[in-house]
Amino acid sequence: MAKDFSIFDQKMMQLALEEAKLAFNKEEVPVGAVLTLGDQVIARAHNTMETKGDPTAHAEILCIRKGAEAIGDWRLLGATLYTTLEPCVMCGGAMLLARITRVVWGAPDIRHGSNGSWIDLFEKKHPTHQLEIAGGLYEEEAANLMRLFFKDKGQNMKKTNFLLVELFDELIAFQETKLLNYAAEIIPNVTSDDILQPNDYDELENHPFFRYEEGVLKGIQTAKMAVLAKLRED
Ligand SMILES: [Zn+2]
Q: Binding site: residue ranges?
């Protein structure tokens, strides 16, 4: 893999990283891309999958579309695409179809990378089109952005789970009071300990509404335990 990148390459990858940061700020997976022809930037874009609800809205695809529109030709011969992440199979395929001449990427994508991390689309010589591809430019910066994004996401999930446990606690207290009130109507002087052992009271055990409300309580308790288990895993 060629590791010698020009000053121009570096500048273009910095632009792509700026695009990736724009995605980050929109809570999108931070991937950015820039398309150049000669010394001109003809398109730049970032991932907008979440915003658009579109699984194909990857930075590279959007860049290819904008670039083709800008030059009025779908053949992007002579163009170089800079992307902060190793392209996926979809984007790698689109790059070949668009006749892009050269691709430079930043950090490897272990799960979806099409240039060796998962599979290598570019390993074999293509019968009609040769694409030059090289990775690792500003790898640390691109990878850090990804790590930061997924760490943030994990922490947000943790906060949500803590809030859920609090909510479940409130629901459980509410439901216990409801059960106690029900039980008090059926058996005078019943205590909260009694309702936890309703088997001792046939009147409670056989009461359909009591049984139903008891089932609701157990459901909430089970849900709370599941969230607690998730929190312990993290
Ligand atoms: Zn892609």
A: 58, 88, 91
pLDDT tens digit sequence for 57-97: 999 999 999 999 999 999 999 999 999 999 999 999 999 99
Active site residues: 60
Instruction: Please tell me the distance between residue 56's alpha carbon and the centre of ligand 1 in angstroms.
Output: 7
When divided into structural domains, the chain yields a total of: 2
pTM (two decimals): 0.70
Length of the chain: 234
- Tell me: do 121 and 164 sit in the same domain: no
Last residue of a domain, one of 80, 107, 137: 137
Q: Which residues contact 33 (CB under 8 A, 6 or more apart)?
A: 16, 19, 44, 45, 46, 59, 60, 62, 63, 81, 82, 83, 84
> Which residue ranges are tagged as binding site for Zn(2+)?
58, 88, 91
